[in-house]
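Hi V.,

You were right to ask for the full record rather than a summary. Here it is.
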Amino acid sequence: MSDLIRKDASELAGLVSSGEVSAVEVAQAHLDRIAAVDGEVHAFLHVDTEGALVSAAAVDAKVKAGDKLSVLAGVPLGLKDILATNGLPTTCGSRILDGWIPPYDATVVTKLREAGVVILGKTNMDEFAMGSSTEHSAFGPTHNPWDLERIPGGSGGGSSACVSSFEAPLAIGTDTGGSIRQPAAVTGSVGVKPTYGGVSRYGIVALASSLDQAGPCARNVLDTALLHSVIAGHDPMDATSINAPVPDVVAAAKRADIKGMKVGIVKELGGEGYQAGVRSRFEESVALIESLGAEVVEVSCPSFPAALAAYYLILPSEASSNLAKFDGIRFGNRVGDDGSKSVEQVMSETRAAGFGSEVIRRIILGTYALSAGYYDAYYGQAQKVRTLIKQDFDAAFAKVDVLISPTAPTTAFKIGEKLDDPLAMYLNDVATIPVNMAGLPGMSLPIGLAPEDNLPVGLQIIAPAMADDRLYNVGAAIERELLAKWGGPILGMAPELAGA
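Predicted structure:
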């Protein structure tokens, strides 16, 4: 195993910019790692070997010419396969888009390329980002690098798994109800869902337009902040993009001082249904936060218990609308067009063959919720709950600087364990969903292993809108103390991967 794949993104960027190591060497080391272990992990759907090496060589040419480089130039990255990428397949984990190669880049991809970040390939995901385990990918599940029999979270399990298996030091995910933070929690990595509108959604295949948000994944807080700083900012191509200065998340990660801050524990995001080991690690983190000079208080957000139900009305409703274009006529692969069938029959056969069971389930739910006679009773009521959730957050942030909770109620469960029980699967996002409903930024930070299974546990940190820097300040302060306590990062690896 090359030493390069064990280095942090910030360290790799420094080595490349100084000329001590070439970007091509760094890229090749990670490509070799992918070749060695991804047959077991299945983090990637497509590896762009040639493109990665060309991008890395361009960075090396800039180093040789003495050009100024960005903070992450020459650092490899895994890209969730929901972002349009010029010249590379973009499938969203679905057969209906199998083979589609976009003629343009998503804004996030454009920013990565301009910064000299080396895109290694596209990572696996639940089909159209619908799922919490990456078992709903049409191309097979991704496996958790800590235990290959367990899920890596979802929908962005490929992104979290490539980071924690050292196939890439950085990754991009998208978070609609927890799809960056929950995978980060169960794979022992750091994942951030930025403020809604803080990172452009242009070129991201939409699941639920009012909830989706791209964000960074890495193995530590500073690397995550550096990636956040590269992809954030206003984009005139995105009508929901915020035209305001990007919070200085990198400076906040380096400050790492929470003395005098007020930290709120959300009463409703804990207790019954949370694994004992998750609760114990969370309680230890609360004590650590207090030892760093912050004041910890409990706050109540009484509408949060209704967030899950409201979310699973709003998301399917938006998804049923967004996915209507994938019908074999306007967009996507076509099935059954032998000249003897009507347009309606071709559409029906195409969608039946192209969509998996979870996508079909949510389209049906959303279409029903938006139908005449049910709109006000279901979708309309869910939007009222969403307003109440935002009001609860507003009231909480009038008292505290940030809120905390466990990121996920359990550690990673076994592949197949919840696949036939959609309601049990949906409960994985019970703590993360309120953040998306209110458009707020949230981070998942690894805080140790659950004693009963030795699997990672995540701490969720939530900040007010456009206060993303608070996440990094608090997260870095906690991370610094935990690393000192542990004597370095806790990096678990399944036996099948450890020797590769």
